[in-house]
Inverse folding.
């Protein structure tokens, strides 16, 4: 089989992959992006709404514009971009990694590389994954699939829709469907609070008076060949109250019920995963449990803003550059754990001598909350007041150097 | 109006009908198979546990299904070599968790021994845990039946159909028989679309609708009572995947909820068994989901709702008041072979059922010689099972093999095109023929790509492609069809 | 005096605005930047939204080019704009920023391409293909 060598191989050509590759190339690493679609940009290509780039490019862009800007960064670089190419396995080989790649243009071959940046993004959880009962008729879509139909090829999935889940894609799709003339009957959210950003609730639902049923679930999808409606019911003590069940006629059901990092190849090559984020466990260099393999973007943990994806990707890329140049300092002697009020903290390890930057998510909704980080002796090493805290919105904090091998983060409602 | 004449018409393209078509294809006969749905196997057969049973549940002496199950099991091992379907001969473990259950296990063992099941083994607790370490440690003993396994029931049906077609059997889909009349020793079958087929003999293999077919032909009156089963499918990386099919001790109406290592590499838990009124009821329910997960996790460790990919249900065609198959020439009308009530273990028995149906046809006057030559379709290479080196060789012959369309199940463009060329032009058809969209994302990423491939092969627009049946529209129109009126 | 609560949509922070309307005076609180103030005011006087859509391109393969309004558009004009966008087709090639509709409805707002499509085989970005000889 054919074999080709690189300093770094970036798996995935979406926002994370493009941002990481640009940074690697800037630092003279021989870089390749392996992208399974026939163009780079990933999901950004179908996110034609605006709202991207406020932090990273200091201007508001649409998804395709954000992708174009990233692609422009690569135009003057030597980064190789393999399109329509899938990585099916990662194997260790004498301190390097062998990636098995399948491509219609190049066949089946091996990429040998010193470092790997995982940037595969995430997938949508679907109706089947969450066990929504009822018939298996046509007309049930993942929100992202419906978005792709409408925004890239101009097809309509139906004429009357119910959206399950108030994640950002679902909210954005409520507006897109409405603007396309599809009647959106309602959005059904199982949690007592919305899963998407507040501004999307405002501009995608409230603008069109689309009802949002919080703490409700779909109890049945009805229709033999094509969807004819759904039954929904409020949750009482965690169980649907069938006394209050009602039928909503529709021909389309969209699911926007969460995203899951696409980590199957990472898992198969033995990279340790975090059961909460479903992404790799990483240290302060965003390095996984396998030396030389880094992770960033939605494959590491699901982000709510692409801007943070780009920033995180650059951070992973800088680590890969340092590793290749022999200047990477270990950043894994301290652990940080999520405790009361905190769903997760990424990275999971860091350098006690340097501290570091962290992303976290809360488990509750509050106007004001107090973030406290203690060391293993129970001493407070950091605290910060946070506003408009909700699980849907990622929070960030930065730790100073600590004299301890562990830290615990808690979040308390004020 | 079209008129076509045949020696034999098989009504129903599920496992029974397809196996019969395959069997009859060996003879110099003009045969047709009539399927009411969009593709063969889309009825009872597709929503099936896919078990090739071990022959120890029913007495081969006292029941027809017991005899045919045993014979079917043996034939399956042969068919798997010749035909292009996935067969995983992993064996069955039936586990007992109480002394009462152990008593049942001993009876099953006796039944298996009496039937002549080979290598059947009564096991103590240690042996059970040695055979399957994932079993709940509370197990006290059980039965091991090595010569059993799992198949992909749809690909089994498809391979029978493909082979029958290659050997001259005609297959008409979307052919729902609405009238069946005999005149001058010739049956005339009319479809809902007014298509007419004439045949000397009829085999009624209409599954859930065998009662209706029998009635409109003026044959026996009986009622098919659907016994619904829900199944839940777990990710191929689930820790629950056992090395053998795990059975509980059976009840009077069902073999119970099993933990099944599917031939395709996933894990399936189910089925339930509930009598329903509506034959088209394919609903799943929150209540049964809970029940199945609870029963399965009591037997095997690692069963988690987090690994759930999808769920589905199907019904077993049970004749009301009868637990056995009804395979016999009609006593009311001539040249009409009944193959009704083919409930569990109907899939396992199907090759033997087909043999038996042919015997009955010949015994009732059908005359035909065996063909000198019988052809088998070339097997389509399966990328998922290839090493990278083997895949590279495939790529050299056909670059479409290196274009992975379904990432979760690793299905290539080449396999999808091959399926469409065999006539699987619906999304479900491609799914069942290739496993594409059957994985963890359930087609979220690849459905549109698959639709483009179908459209390309068929020369149609992607908006013409159905999920399965005629009205199962996926795309309802184009942007601009509808209008946003107010803000 | 009337009080209205709105979420500012200018950035992901989503400030909770409280807008007090008193005869001729509008006062906004809860904003964390000046954009929030002007957003709150315009929500009362002249609500506007940035419109994005996908317009069909003239090609043998059905595909769309993303477009957006060059500035937020008065909401009452959105239905008419969408009707126009969803019924038109545009020729290739299209570069980012190309004007699709000039001065829509006299608003001085243009509809511009928010993506790039040189031909209907997508790649407009750098698309280096690995040649056989490079493979060792």
């Amino acid at each position: 089989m054919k074999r080709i060598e690189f300093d770094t191989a970036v798996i995935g050509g979406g926002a994370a992959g493009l941002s990481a590759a640009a940074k690697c190339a800037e630092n003279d690493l021989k870089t390749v992006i392996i992208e399974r679609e026939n163009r780079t940009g990933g999901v950004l290509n179908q996110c034609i709404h605006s709202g991207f780039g406020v932090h990273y490019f200091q201007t508001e862009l649409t998804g395709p514009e954000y992708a174009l800007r990233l692609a422009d960064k690569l135009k003057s670089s030597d980064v190789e971009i393999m399109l329509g190419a899938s990585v099916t396995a990662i194997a260790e080989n004498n301190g390097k990694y062998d990636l098995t790649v399948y491509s219609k243009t190049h066949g089946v071959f091996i990429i040998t590389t010193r470092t790997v940046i995982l940037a595969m993004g995430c997938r949508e959880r679907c109706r089947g994954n969450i066990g929504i009962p009822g018939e298996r008729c046509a007309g049930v879509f993942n929100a992202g699939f419906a978005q792709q139909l409408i925004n890239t090829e101009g097809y309509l999935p139906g004429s009357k829709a119910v959206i399950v889940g108030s994640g950002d894609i679902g909210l954005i799709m409520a507006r897109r469907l409405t603007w396309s003339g599809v009647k959106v009957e309602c959005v059904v959210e199982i949690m007592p609070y919305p899963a998407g950003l507040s501004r999307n609730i405002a501009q995608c639902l409230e603008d069109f008076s689309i009802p949002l049923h919080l703490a409700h679930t779909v109890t049945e999808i009805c229709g033999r060949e094509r969807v004819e409606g759904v039954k929904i019911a409020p949750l009482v003590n965690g169980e649907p109250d069938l006394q209050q069940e009602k039928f909503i006629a529709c021909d389309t059901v969209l699911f926007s019920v969460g995203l899951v990092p696409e980590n199957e190849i990472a898992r198969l090559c033995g990279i340790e995963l975090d059961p909460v984020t479903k992404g790799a466990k990483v240290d302060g260099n965003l390095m996984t449990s396998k030396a030389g393999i880094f992770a960033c973007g939605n494959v590491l943990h699901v982000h709510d803003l692409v801007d943070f994806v780009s920033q995180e990707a650059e951070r992973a890329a800088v680590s890969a550059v340092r590793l290749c140049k022999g200047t990477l300092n270990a950043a894994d002697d301290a652990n940080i754990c999520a405790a009361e009020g905190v769903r997760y903290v990424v990275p999971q390890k860091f350098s006690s001598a340097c501290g570091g930057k962290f992303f976290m998510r809360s488990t509750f909704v509050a106007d004001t909350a107090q973030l406290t980080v203690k060391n293993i002796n129970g001493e407070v090493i950091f605290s910060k007041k946070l506003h408009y805290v909700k699980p849907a919105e990622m929070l960030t904090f930065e730790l100073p150097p600590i004299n301890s091998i562990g830290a615990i983060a808690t979040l308390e409602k004020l | 109006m079209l008129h076509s004449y045949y020696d034999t018409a098989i009504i129903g393209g599920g496992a029974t009908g397809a196996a019969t078509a395959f069997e009859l294809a060996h003879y110099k006969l003009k045969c047709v198979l009539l399927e009411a749905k969009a593709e063969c196997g889309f009825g009872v057969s597709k929503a099936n546990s896919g078990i090739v049973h071990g022959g120890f549940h029913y007495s081969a002496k006292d029941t027809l299904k017991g005899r045919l199950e045993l014979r079917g099991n043996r034939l399956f091992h042969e068919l798997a070599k010749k035909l292009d379907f996935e067969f995983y001969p992993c064996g069955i473990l039936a586990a007992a968790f109480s002394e009462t259950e152990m008593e049942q296990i001993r009876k099953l063992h006796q039944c298996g021994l009496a039937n002549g099941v080979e290598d059947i083994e009564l096991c103590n607790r240690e042996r059970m845990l040695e055979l399957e370490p994932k079993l709940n440690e509370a197990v006290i003993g059980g039965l091991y039946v090595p010569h059993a396994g799992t198949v992909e029931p749809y690909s089994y049906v498809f391979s029978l159909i493909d082979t029958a077609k290659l050997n001259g059997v005609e297959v008409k889909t979307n052919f729902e028989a609405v009238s069946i009349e005999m005149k001058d020793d010739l049956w005339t079958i009319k479809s809902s679309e007014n298509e007419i087929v004439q045949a000397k003999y009829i085999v009624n293999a209409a599954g859930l609708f065998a009662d209706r077919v029998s009635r409109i032909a003026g044959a026996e009156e009986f009622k098919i009572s659907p016994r619904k089963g829900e199944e839940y499918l777990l990710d191929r990386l689930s820790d629950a995947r056992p090395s053998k099919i795990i059975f509980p001790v059976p009840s009077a109406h069902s073999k119970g909820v099993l933990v099944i290592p599917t031939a395709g590499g996933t894990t399936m838990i189910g089925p339930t068994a509930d009598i329903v009124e509506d034959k088209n009821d394919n609903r799943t329910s929150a209540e049964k989901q809970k029940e199945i997960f609870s029963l399965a996790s009591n037997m095997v460790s690692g069963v988690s709702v987090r690994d759930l990919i999808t769920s589905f249900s199907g019904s077993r065609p049970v004749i009301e008041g009868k637990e056995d198959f009804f395979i016999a020439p009609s006593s009311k009308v001539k040249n009409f072979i009944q193959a009704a009530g083919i409930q569990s273990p109907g899939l396992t028995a199907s090759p033997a059922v087909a043999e038996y149906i042919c015997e009955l046809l010949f015994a009732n006057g059908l005359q035909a010689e065996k063909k000198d030559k019988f052809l088998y379709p070339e097997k389509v290479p399966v990328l998922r099972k290839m090493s990278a080196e083997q895949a590279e060789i495939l790529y050299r012959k056909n670059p479409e093999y290196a274009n992975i369309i379904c990432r979760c199940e690793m299905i290539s463009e080449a396999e999808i095109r091959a399926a469409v060329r065999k006539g699987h032009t619906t999304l479900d058809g491609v799914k069942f023929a290739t496993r594409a969209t059957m994985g963890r994302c359930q087609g979220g990423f690849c459905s549109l790509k698959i639709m483009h491939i179908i459209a390309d092969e068929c020369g149609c627009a992607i908006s013409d492609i159905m999920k399965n049946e005629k009205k199962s529209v996926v795309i309802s129109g184009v942007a601009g069809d509808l209008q946003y009126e107010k803000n | 005096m009337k009080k209205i609560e709105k979420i500012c949509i200018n950035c992901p922070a989503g400030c909770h605005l409280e807008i007090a309307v008193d005869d001729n005076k509008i006062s906004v609180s809860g904003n964390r930047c000046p954009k929030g103030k002007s957003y709150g005011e315009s929500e009362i006087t002249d609500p506007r939204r940035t419109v994005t859509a996908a317009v069909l391109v003239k090609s043998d393969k059905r595909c769309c080019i993303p477009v957006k309004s060059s500035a937020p558009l008065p909401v009452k004009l959105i239905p008419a704009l969408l009707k126009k966008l969803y019924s038109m087709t545009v020729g290739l090639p299209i570069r980012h920023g190309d004007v699709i509709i000039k001065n829509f409805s006299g608003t001085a707002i243009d509809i511009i391409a928010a993506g790039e499509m040189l031909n209907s085989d997508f790649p407009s970005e750098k698309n280096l293909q690995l040649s056989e000889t490079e493979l060792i």
Chain B touches chain A through 62 residues (CB under 8 Å). The domain at 1-86+148-222+322-379 of chain B is CATH 3.50.50.60 (FAD/NAD(P)-binding domain). Chain B has a mean pLDDT of 96.
